Structures are given as C-alpha cells and as structure tokens.
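Lab notebook: predicted structure, single chain.

Context: the supervisor wants predicted structures on file for every construct in the current expression panel, including those that have not yet been purified. This is the next one on the list. No modifications to the sequence; it matches the entry in the shared construct table.
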Amino acid sequence: MESKNTNEKEKYLAHISEDKKREQTVLEHNQGAALLAGEFASKFGCREWGQAAGLCHDIGKYSKGFQKRLLGEGPPVDHSTAGAQELYARGYLMVAYCVAGHHSGLQDGGSAAADESDAGTFLGRMKKQVEDYSAFREETEIPRLSDVPLKPLGKGGFSVSFFIRMLFSCLIDADRLDTERFMMNGMVERGGYDSVEILMDRLQAHIAPWLRQEALSTVNGRRTAILKNCLEKGKEEPGLFQLTVPTGGGKTTASLAFALQQMKTYGMDRVIYAIPYISIIEQNAQVFKDILGEHNVLEDHSNVSVENPEKLRKEQLAAENWDRPVIVTTNVQFFESLFSNQTSKCRKLHNIANSVIILDEAQMLPSKYLIPCIWALSELICNYHCTAVLCTATQPSLATYFPKGIQARELCPDVNSQYEFFKRTRLIYGGVFSEKELAERLQKEEQVLCILNSRKRVQRIYRKLNGEEVYHLSTLMYPNHRKRVLREVRERLADGLPCRLIATSLVEAGVDLDFQAVYRELAGVDSVIQAAGRCNREGKRSREGSLTVIFTMDKEEKADIPAELNQPIAVAEQIQREFDDISSLEAIHEYFERLYRYKGESLDSKGIVEQFEQGIRAFSFPFETAASRFHLIEERTKTILVDKEPEARRIAEQLRAGCFSRELMRQAGGYCIQVYDNLFEDLRGAGLIEELFPEFYRLRSAEQYREDVGLLLNVSRGDAVFA
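Prediction complete. Output recorded below exactly as produced.
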C-alpha cells in the first residue's frame, strides 16, 4: 500500500466555514470566481478577461504561509501579488492591476524604473518577493488572452483605465459572491426580481388613463404627447438622448417609460437614476415603487431608513452590487464610484454596463468635474452598451464636450411648443432691493416664496417679517424639522391662508410648492427657472397674475454668498440684460454656453482626464490619486446631531454608549445638519459641540437651535451669543 504522501495530492484551501465543517479549495474558489467574473464581463464582450481575473486572483493562497494563516497559525500573508505578477509577466497588465488590487484597491501605477517593491504602487508591487506559490501550476493553467474589443476615446489612456476599473468590478463582485455562496452554504437571498416584460405591463397599466387624454389644449394631453414620444423613441438604437421637459410636463414617468422600452427592445438589464438631491430621490423612488413594485426598486443614498431587519438585509445586499432592475441614487454616489479605486465602491460598476442611465436635473453636474463626468458617460455609451439620458427643464449646452460621433437625440416632441404651453408665471426684473425694501414687499404679499443666496440673509429677512404665517427653511435645519415646516406650509397654501416662506435654494428642486408669487435673488439662470416653477405650479391662476420677481440685493448689505455662485450670477446678469425672457430656450442655451466657455480648463479642475490619458505611455494610471481628488461635493463639512426631540436623544445616548450600526446612522441623519469648517470652528471655539465619535458631533446648547430658524449663526469663538 502506498503512503498517503505519494498517493494523495496536497490540498490547498481558500476558505473554511465558520463551523469548521466545510472546506473550499483554492481551485474551487478560483474557478467559481472565474465563472462569475466571465459572465459579468461578457456584458461588454470580455468574458475571457473576466475569467482570467477570477482564475488568477487567489493563486497566492497556494503558499504554505497562507495555509497556516487560514488555520490561525501564522501572520497575515499577501496573496494578491502572486497572481498579478504571473499576469504581468505575460503582458496582461490590465488584468494584473485588478488582481493586485482585489483586497486593497486599485493603486497608482507608479514607475517601473524608480519604484522599489515597498513603494505602494502597482509597478512597485511587481518587484515584490512573495512566498513560494508554485504549487498552483499543478492545477491551473493561465489562459492566453486576445485583444480587448475597446473603442478608444481620445489618446486611449482614459479608455484603458476605465476598462481596468470595470474589469476590477467584475472580479470584486465575483470574488465576494462566490465566497458568500460558500460561507452561506448556498443559502443566499439575492435576486427574485420581476422581468422587464412584467415591469412594462405594470407601467402600461399605470399610464393607461393618461393615454386616453390626447387634447393638446390640456395639461394631461400634453403629458400624453411627451409620454408617447418617449415610448416610441425607446425603440431607437441605444446612445445619448436628452429629455427637455418644462416643469409640469411629467418627465419622471416619461423617462421611466423610455428606459423600460429600451430595456425591453435591446435586452438591457436595469435603469439607473442619478439625481442631485436626496429630496428628489425619495419622491421619485416612491413613484417608481408605486408603479413597478417595491422589491424591484433600490434606493441607494445616505438617508435611506428601513425598520424591518429582514428587509434591511435585502436592501444592503442589493446596494452592494446594484443588481435590481431600477436603481435610484445620487450624482455623488454614481460618479464618485466611477472614479473610485476602492473595492466596496467599485463592486457595482459592472452592473452599470448594459443599463439605461437617467441623469435627472442634468444641469446640476458640477462644472469642476464636467469633463470627467462626460468622458465617463461617453465610455459607458461607446464601450459598455449603455444609454444615457440628460433629463431637465434647463438643458445644459454639452454637445461640444462629448466625443465626435456622440450626439444627443431629443425625446420631447416640439420642445418650444411645450415650453410655451407649460409657462405658468411671468418673470420680471424688480431691480435692486435693500433688505428693508424686500421685507416690506414680502409683507404685502398673501402667499409668497422668497429664495435668497445666503443662509445669513435668509435668517435676517425672516426676522424682519411679522406674523405666524411666516416660515423659514434652510440647511441649518435638520431634515425632519424641514419636513414639518414644509407640511405646514403646504397645508396653509392648500387652505388659501396667508403664507410667506423665506428659504435658500433647497426648495428649488424636488419640493412641490405652489405660491401666488415668487421672489428670487438673481442666481444662475437654471436656479431662477427652478424657482419660477414654484409659482402657479398647478396652473390654477392666470399667467399674467402670477409673478416671479428677480432682484439683486443692495451690495452695501453684505452677506456670505458661496464662492461657487459668483460666476453663475455674473453670467446670469449678462443674460438678464440681453434677453427679454431669461426662461426662453435661447437664453438658457446661451447662459450655459457662456458659463462653460468662461470656466474653460476648470471644467476638469483637477486634470483627471489628462492624467489618465498620459498614463497610457508607461501603462501607469493614477487610480488612487484620482479617487482622492474626485469629490463632487468639495467643501468640507462636519455632521452635527441636534437632539431636541426624544428620538434624537435616544440615538445620541446609543452613540455615546458605543452602539454603532448603519441603520442607527441612517436614523440619525434625520436629525443632523452639515456645517462648513468655519462655522464648525466657531461652534467648537464657543464650547457648543460634543464629539460623539470622530467626525460626528452633538450640539450641546439647546438655545443655539431654534424651532423657527434652526441653528443660529450669531456665534463667535469663545463667546457664544444667543438670540
């Protein structure tokens, strides 16, 4: 009888179950990950590259050191570098980047000549000495790979780096899913969503009453015309589209109809809505859930709160890789993930391929990152079988920034006619006001909304007005507080009672209000038009009698206006002087043309696209550096919990006791405000905040937060002043 050593091949393990009763070999795990990663990458024609990434990602686990570590008998072992080095040696650098980063994230490429093995770069890693893992050759043969079927944009560097990130996503999700499947012994609760045919049937049932109303002299008839056009255009070839619909035109449902038609016609997998404001996300997500069924729609943003633990787990699983038919998320989440190097953020990227992407309020794309955002969308359209829709009432002038050959097709029929029909207010320029004059004008109005550019000025104007019917709204009030105020404001408006609301721009999008008159301090043209959408919103009054008054403030009365508003205001002043109607399509187009032209190189303020383009020379891409620089919301803020309500006090007590969970933090979000660094330092200097844990604080003083205006701004360091 032969000995065990000569008769049995040594077994190399990747995972051991928590109960120690089951084992998964490295070969089983690598093959499982290869199968999934290949399937994911097949969506963009790169199955063999996905398979190679999965097959090679854990071959470092064939080392004796890792096997000891798995049994708890040794120190941590680098098992990611081995597979990357094998691929690198064969010239497969793109997949080598992915394997090297599948635990720590994609690194900067670095320099092959200058970087040593400990440099913390990809090319440095390729010189690193790793423990012997040669036993992998007995079980695994690294496949030969054909060329990647990419259509390179520009110099090709950005395209290659984008492909690496998409392939990286395939590997990360495949690795996590195969591991999850083993550890859960196959009992994984994912999927179970409805087919696009069922989703389309539900949409058709929802819109059936609309489709019977075709008279273009009615609001519903106009909405029907837009909706029908979107359904018909959904049969066109995937690519870039725009939906230019004025306020009241029903663009939320129309865009969904277009997206589902594209999915059904071209076998696409999902709809992804990227939206700038959480308030709009919550509204739109609820519309989609009502139409399509709650289990088919994922809300992925910081304010999502789910009370049922089982439902919460399903939501968290879906958020990991975006595998539901409809995803509703923020611009920040969407674009920062596309430029991230982290495993958790990149995991979902491959599920963006073969999708319909709706950019709601497209004019809100931040100008500092406009070019990187457009290049990312272009990659998704050209190389990953995506459709993108720029959806807004104020269409930005982006045509010149998309690569040659990508041209937007309009989904709204007869845009000029729609704008004229849905115009419900008359915009006039009121001139220059002092704060006293503005307050006197507002006091004479019965139902009026006034939007100002400065939170300090909002508080000052609010104090100058008298009566219980005066309300204040700004981001210095926590979200649940704002919701209470909005509820009361809507009730007064509906009952025909006097109501004067003084607010910042937070009410301009996603907040359904209908005032008799609106006063808007001059800002960007898109902001002015959004504000005008709160005047006579339901069309119950005549256009002539519904005024939106645009004004500027006396420059002698200083207010802290955010620096990013200076250029939009300057361009809007030019447009206001040159056009009789700044809400016209011509004025909107000219506004964005000038704004982007004046900004010039600052449309990619961090030079991100050029860095990736140059990286093709040495095949060295700045993944980590770019991710650290790409932040759509740049101004640093601190989070402060205001625990005036019993629920907020309960949350504060739990956090102080060391209890911490994702769900608790989401609950806390309803009672938190975000403050910029300068105000935060004033509050801290005055001893008004308590740190509950790093970067998360509690307001100590109840007097510093008032029920009418929220957080008071009259505080100086070391000397708190209470109003």
